[in-house]
Specification:
Length: 99
């Protein structure tokens, strides 16, 4: 199971339902704590959240150039929480980076 998860982290095409199940069991993935997050694609608009909430899954999305070439949108959107770094716009790129 661990080898499959490592393969998934190295190449998203190696990810499947089994690796998602293994990832969801990791303690660090099971609980996220934060006070506020940017709303959608606006880095200046923030929403306050409950300080501690458990999520079954989360996606952490950066702004690597290859994201425009890939179609990870549906995979990203399957997660309960999506954390986007570098506050890049998602409008027009939903098939690639989720909505």
């Amino acid at each position: 199971e661990e080898e499959a998860l490592v393969a998934c982290l190295r190449n998203i095409k190696a990810c499947n339902e089994d690796t998602m199940r293994v990832a969801q069991q990791l303690k660090g993935v099971q609980e996220l704590s934060f006070r506020s997050l940017p709303v959608h694609d606006s880095p200046t608009t923030r929403v306050d959240l409950v300080t501690s909430r458990r999520y079954r899954s989360c996606a952490v999305v950066g702004n690597a150039g290859h994201m425009k070439l890939a179609r990870y949108g549906a995979f990203i959107d399957r997660h309960e929480a999506v954390m986007r770094f570098n506050a890049q716009a998602v409008r027009g790129f939903a098939p690639n980076v989720g909505g």
